[in-house]
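Subgroup meeting minutes
Present: P.N., E.W., G.H.
Scribe: E.W.

1. P.N. recapped why we're keeping a running log of single-chain structure predictions: easier to compare across weeks, and new members can see raw inputs and outputs side by side.
2. G.H. added today's entry (161 aa).
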Amino acid sequence: MDWLFGPAWALGLSAQFGGSWFDWSDPLVNTAGKMEEVAWDARFGLDRVLRLGAGGMAQVGVGIEYGENHSWTHTLGDAPYSGHDIEDRGPRCYRIGGYARLAAMTPTWRRMALCAEVSESIYGAHASDPPFGTQLNWIGHSLGLSVGLRFQLARGYASGP
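Output recorded in log:
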């Protein structure tokens, strides 16, 4: 979500949530189980808005982001573990850092526009792995590319002549 608080500036707040799961069974050794993973992050930033032609625009901005990743697995095994749930919680990862982005949007058509974005993030991260008692700290970066549709929920009022 973006809030245009001036003709050339916008505050943005965004979030994403996702995850995956994988169930399996192996009749040869009589095992079954599942692995699950959940990830989410949130961003807050300031963008410079540049008008491009009739209705198009670009945004160049910076901001901060925070995210977490968690994973775990459950396995039901054969003898000597028959019917026993072998549970393993994977690393819990927390990251915080900053990002820079460049986005471009086509002219709006009925409150909808095609949007493309490239963003580079640099973050500090910490992970703890409970089964092994390990603690990990690192600095990382990620490059994100996205293309999608952008919907305008509310329209502002034009000022001036």
